[in-house]
Amino acid sequence: MNDVDFAQGCIHELQAEYTASLKCLERIPVSLFEYKPHEKSMALGYLALLVAEIPLWVYHIASGNDIDFATYAHFQPKTTDELVAHFKENHQKAIEVLKGIEDGGLDGMFSLKNNGTVLHTEPRKHSISSSINHMVHHRGQLTVYMRLNDIPVPSIYGPSADDRTFG
């Protein structure tokens, strides 16, 4: 598959996951950002931030940038509205960079690093695909946290127990 077709497929997938992710993030109260269902679990706020920031990873990967955890500055939302706005901005950046991809534009490797030490390297196309899957995975975790806190879970791929509508 050429890079243009691949990028168009990723745009379609990001757009398909956008509404459900947005509906989840809009329901996360700041008062629960520190909630953890287990001592080994991520805090709810960090999990929500991952869902909001992974489209930014797609932007960096598609732009040819590596990500180093030591220098990657996580956004620090103070409100749910800021979290949601951050997600919308990151989503749009990912879509725009993917729209600009030309054949050969995704050649090369992407590396995830920690303080310069390479943790993982893979072809950029693979990394974009796995990042989108990673976002969906964390959104799934987020819905469990929502359920545990009596936050209504929106319809994602079909009706939820809280939302009997599609879309």
UniProtKB/TrEMBL annotation:
Keywords: Metal-binding
Pfam family, one: DinB
Keyword Metal-binding: yes
Keyword Repressor tagged: no
Similarity comment: Belongs to the DinB family.
Protein's name in the database: Damage-inducible protein DinB
